[in-house]
Amino acid sequence: MAIGVWISLFAYFAVMIGIGLFAMRTSTSSSEDYMLGGRGLSPKVAALSAGASDMSGWLLLGLPGAMYVSGLASAWIGVGLFVGAFLNWVIVAPRLRSQTVSYGNALTIPAFLANRFPTQALPLRTVAAIVIVVFFSVYTASGLVAGGKLFESAFAGIFNFGGMGDYGVGIVITLGVVLAYTVVGGFLAVSMTDFVQGCIMMVALVLMPAVVLFGEGGGGFAQATATLNEVDPTLLSWTEGLTFVGWLSAVTWGLGYFGQPHIIVRFMAIRSVKEVPTARNIGMSWMAISLIGAIGLGIFGRAYAVRNGMQIDDPETIFIILADLLFHPLITGFLYAALLAAVMSTISSQLLVASSSLTEDFYRLFLRKEAGDRECVNVGRVCVVLVGLVAAVIASDPNSNVLSLVGNAWAGFGSAFGPLIILALVWPRTNGAGALAGMIAGAGTAMIWVSLGYNSEFMGGPGVYEIMPGFAASLIAIVVVSLATSDANEYQAEQHS
């Protein structure tokens, strides 16, 4: 492995850890500082932090891999996500920023739900925290799988410490660097590193498709489309071979945005409600560029591989393979850093949110109600490490599929929290009984759907993505149970005038 690659990677690791140390000195003195950065994120940091923590290794591995295999039909996932993200900024962001403050200055999503629905405060907070910890363990594992695949593909045969192999060492290094800056720097470190990582990811997703198309051996757009037509004309079709159920399963990924704690917590931390539109514009511009780049990388990477006689055993590694093949070692190292940035930005956010729930919604709620801020910060740091270790165990299987793991966790959160967050913010009639019923119905339906295999095959046809039945079950349960039970006047409208 060329020295230039190591120089770029070590520089990246040093910057991430340096940001963590800076944040430790400025924003870890209280629980609000450690968990929400003192609610002082600027629009650009909030926007890119939300975007980078959202996209993860899925953007550089999962989506290009799906495009490589299925062509433009898989791009509907990106379309659904873009629409969902925009609606999330419009509907949820300003209301959640305002209401989490007015309802008891809640620092976590479970705490907000408990304050919003005091008649069911304890069960809501407990169930919400359990859902967050369970699904984030799986979600974090997907990021570690991506880190393991990078080391397995890029550094084949170099690492074999303790018999772990390249994949295992990749998991250890990825998790180790993330824990270093997350544990010491908290939310501010996570958000600042997300901003840097988001910039790196976007540059990589502009650079890579351009070189694949127009660099040596690329042949340009016309040659790429001609090659794809020879391989399989359906690769360039948005609709051919795509059933209505398949299309719906793809675009409904966007429903998940409303219930992703690691994304919407950025809305809680932005400096003011007035700055939400600015953050939205920055975030959506970043997302559009990044999604187009990932789609182009996958489909034009397929054309490049075919034209140059390349054998790609795992389509999800197309980014890694082309980075090593087409660029100077220093640039290759930068591109590897972009992949690690995508992975680490999400892992760090998820670890911190899961840790916050364990600290605020278990430790402080059941074990040490009188715990002070300094104690809670230290407990939060321990919880970050514990959740990370559980995720590493889940990720230990090198055959794990990044897109599949992300899809399961994304659907779980979207089903459990999506309808509830929306209705809690906009429908005053929502009550505690309905909120609890909706959360359980959504998470339960999604998990049962996966366990029955209906996400792979349903009624003799293609599978139905579990977020569809899960989101619907949660929405129906909240509305029906809220209307069937008494209105406890839990929504205090005068606070939000």
Automatic annotation (TrEMBL):
It catalyses: L-proline(in) + Na(+)(in) = L-proline(out) + Na(+)(out). Its main location: membrane. It holds the Pfam family SSF. It is found in: Cell inner membrane; Cell membrane. PROSITE patterns: NA_SOLUT_SYMP_2 (PS00457), NA_SOLUT_SYMP_3 (PS50283). The keyword Amino-acid biosynthesis does not apply. It is a multi-pass membrane protein. The keyword Protein transport does not apply. Keywords: Amino-acid transport, Cell inner membrane, Cell membrane, Ion transport, Membrane, Sodium, Sodium transport, Symport, Transmembrane, Transmembrane helix, Transport. The chain crosses the membrane at residues 6-24, 73-92, 126-147, 167-188, 195-215, 235-258, 279-300, 376-395, 407-427, 434-452, 464-484. Catalyzes the sodium-dependent uptake of extracellular L-proline. Belongs to the sodium:solute symporter (SSF) (TC 2.A.21) family. PANTHER family: SODIUM/PROLINE SYMPORTER-RELATED, SODIUM_PROLINE SYMPORTER. This is Sodium/proline symporter. It comes from Marinobacter xiaoshiensis. The lineage of its organism: Bacteria, Pseudomonadati, Pseudomonadota, Gammaproteobacteria, Pseudomonadales. The gene is putP.
